[in-house]
Amino acid sequence: MSKFTSAAIAAFMLSSSTYAFAQVADRSYYGGATVSSPSAGQYFVRNRYTAANAHSYPGLDPVPVRIGAFEARPVLLLGSRTRSNVFLTNTAEQSDTMIVIEPSISMASTWSRHRIGFDAAVEHEEFLDLSNQSATQYGVRGFGEVDVSSNFAVAGSVIHQNLREDRLSIGGQTGTTAAERIEFDRSGGEANALYATDRLRLQGRVSLTEYDYASSQNFRDHESVTVTGSAQYAITRDWAVIGEIETVDREYSATGSNRDISGITYRAGANFELPVNLRGQVTAQYQDFDPVVGGNIQQTGLSAAVQWFPSQLTTANFFASQSVSDAGNTADTNVAVTRYGVGLDHELLRTLVLTSQLSFENREFNPSNREDDQTVFNVGANWKLNPNVQIQGGYRFATQDSNVNPFDDHSVTIAIRFFP
Question: Using 50, 70 and 90 to split pLDDT, how confident is the model at 25?
Fold first, then answer.
């Protein structure tokens, strides 16, 4: 590839971007319980390769701010996004440009043992023409971890968010041009534990989350309890077998609601980092969900997150998942979702990382015969000017084939992130 061609590709990607509200969790120190003993989980170390978008360069990467015994990462994002089809309709498309302002901070202690911290983020989107779509979101979370021993740790978090539902998501009111985006509160907490020896990892997690929607959507108000247990055993340093069981129980609060559902998922597979430049986890899964209304949902599938490193500068990503979600409308009680896709990251320069992703999502609604097939393609770039400033740009194309609401949407974004 010539220098001219490379520069043209970089300029195109920098002219646009895709970014989303981090919803507190996405850029957090919090990752659940961990153990620090060299003999605990040494067969599970997965650091043979470094992803193209994860290389660290002194003098280019943001430097955390030390505040006594704490380390803080404040960020200010300023950006704009232009969309061709704001309401995701098949007819009478309306375009608009929004201005985005998003300050956020993540802070954690730097103690040699134990840890506490918090995340907070606020995002305001101001539409230039469609003012009724302008909105402010916010979220805050506190977390902590206790190292009971060198092999055992427990951790937990509490969270509260006030959000607006993305129209691309299930229940996002696509095709409705008069309504504002759906507002909802998400509150809850989780507790998790990890026990690890050199070859064995036992993990458990319990989470409770409450969803409180705006009055027009209060039929979706519910409480969700998820319990997960997993065990991994390392056969060699390169790979380990894994077994996991996850139960989900959603109980709706609306009077006379028939949307309650409970289910269980079984997974079995392998976690690995192989000499053939592969790293990730692949499990086969079986799901059995029992809704109050409608027949049982039983499905087999694949849960996967795999990285391939063809070179030190390029990383390919593969992912797949299946789930049963709230349908987000009064005609259906739930929806079976299958999602899979690929992505490619390339470090063109130390200061410039190019990204792309193609994802497919199939949604089968129950009990109606509605079926949506959504395809989303992203290309973008992150340009590191210095430790305090990064420029992000990209383009997104989303299309949906549906017997209820098909649509196409083009989105172009440019943003600047400041790291004080």
Answer: very low
